[in-house]
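Hi P.,

Sorry for the delay on this. The queue was packed all week, but I finally got your sequence through. Input first:
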Amino acid sequence: MIKANAFLVVLVIPVLAAQAAGAERIWENDITIYTDGLSWNYTDAYSDASAQQYRHRVDASGNNDSFVSAWELYEMEKVARTTMKNNILAEFDVRVDNSSSGIELLDISAALSPALIGSVNDTGRIVNRYSTRYSFDVLLRGNRSLWLMGEPKSPVHISTVNITIISSGGISNVTISDSSLSGIAGASGEMRVELYGIQEKAAESHTPAIEEPKKDNAQWIKALVGSVVVLLLGVLGVLVYLIYARNR
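Then the structure:
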């Protein structure tokens, strides 16, 4: 897991994604800070050679037959969720006032792109989506400092609910308003955001549960049909060979 320096963004990158990184990879972060927690949605996109490398690695984790199947994709999503959870629990990437004490990881979601299904030599664009959700046992009221460990040099957008953003560190090209921040994470990936939480109890905001990213059902059905067709063609080829060999 990549680590950084002055902010509280945790971008836990599944092992496969980290290995397949390249010039054609784009990582983007969308973080929302509430008085009682934080939600983090991020996309990991690949194209051209990086997309092809990613497909090869997913297939290599399965039967290595040069075709990424729906089953291999499903299994890799489980690996991604487990990897993210283990990495976060081993070393928390979110800190409030320079401490991860009292922060709980609530949910993790991973949805790999159905565009992965097919030939490993395909260079078409892949967009994977991940989400994590944290709770704080102490509400963010008054002056607080939030530290995040992110992916170096990746775009970051932060929004807050009933919390004012005062300043930031470890983020370049930064634009700040009272309730939003946009910029680029620094070379270390560490980011820091200074906040002021509204004191009134009525102004408390609660971190919503993660909604699983919506899947493109039509694309999934098409991919499943493709996998079945490839399997049937393979079986038919074996039968033809056996009949031919028997009649020789």
